[in-house]
Amino acid sequence: MPIGIKNTSGITNVQEFVAKMGGDFAVETVNLHTVEGEKVRERYLRRVDTKELFACVGHSYNILQNNRAFQHLQPFVDSGKMEIVSGGIGSGGKVCYISGRVIGSDGEVAHDDRIENYFNIINPFDGIKAVYALFSPRRLNCDNQIRGVLRDDASKMIRIKHSSQVEMNLTKVMEIVDMAQADFRANLEQYQFLARRQVNSADIKKYVTRLWEVEGLARDEISTRTNNILEGVFEFIHSGIGQNTPSTKGSFFWLWQGVNGYLNHVDGRNEENRFINLLCGNTANFDQKCFDLAISLANAA
Predict the structure, then answer these.
(1) pLDDT tens-digit map of 195-232
(2) What is the pLDDT of residues 22-70, one digit of tens each?
């Protein structure tokens, strides 16, 4: 985690990094025709250099090229508010992203469990996903992406449809970067609250079975697939990456991060699939559910 490459050479020019990560290609639309040769309203997205077809789109779909999408990060890099950390392309270019660390937005859940705040732009060409601009704190000792707390409101995550206003809307969205530090501090207080509340074996079982909606069911009443998932989750909670951090081990933060770590490192078809789903797919919503339940149980403890 995450997919792509890290900015190990400290590149500060966004377009230079886009080229290094393999994102300096153009996308075009090509017309579709019936077998009789009649032109239809839908079009196909096609990568210009490789001629690879990406997706079928409607007539109103507007392309936001990578060189325009990611250039919006440059003023923040130039001002010292952000540094380019990583970026990459997935599925041959259907999904492209850059992740930047927001300078000064970091903190400790506990003395040996640190979190930093990242801002991401995800530019997809799959014909389905919108352009995303969002924050994703990262737990450093295990590289977990966290989508808990970051709800889908205007101050924290924006989906921008590929309409005629896509680039203008992205320009407006970049104003939220200046809000990152205040938002992160508020979130960090909730992480610290979870770290102060200890769990027992009953809490762990209740948390996991409630998340997968099998609480109170016998093993033979649960599908084989779900049983396998539950076993993997319990195993990751107790011995997964980052789960042996002394200051947070055994807490509700540890419990939430055990499930979050499973989503980061085990769940999904592959690393690319896990990363995108955690930021803007179904897994992001599930991680929010995980966080909300951890807060609820911790408050009741």
Answers:
(1) 999 999 999 999 999 999 999 999 999 999 999 999 99
(2) 999 999 999 887 777 777 778 899 999 999 999 998 888 888 899 888 9
Question: Could you check whether the bond before residue 246 is cis, i.e. omega within 30 degrees of 0?
Answer: no
φ/ψ of residue 44, rounded to 5? -115, 140
Query: Count of CB atoms within 10 A of residue 104's CB?
Result: 12
- For residues 108 and 287, give the distance between their C-alpha atoms in angstroms, rounded to a whole number: 20
The secondary structure element, H or E, covering residue 235 is helix 224-239
Please, are residues 28 and 46 in contact by the beta-carbon 8 Å criterion? yes
d(CA 42, CA 176): 34
Half-sphere exposure of 148 (CA within 13 A, CB side): 27
Q: Match 């400290």 to its residue by tokens.
A: 10
Sorted by sequence, the CB contacts under 8 Å of residue 193 that are 6+ apart come out as 295, 298
CA distance 249 to 109: 12
Q: Which residues are within 8 A (CB) of 292 and not within 5 positions of it... i.e. 6 or more apart?
A: 148
Spatial neighbors of 118 by CB under 8 A, at least 6 apart, are 85, 99, 100, 101, 102, 135, 136, 137, 138
Q: What angle do CA 100, 5, 46 make, to 5 degrees?
A: 95
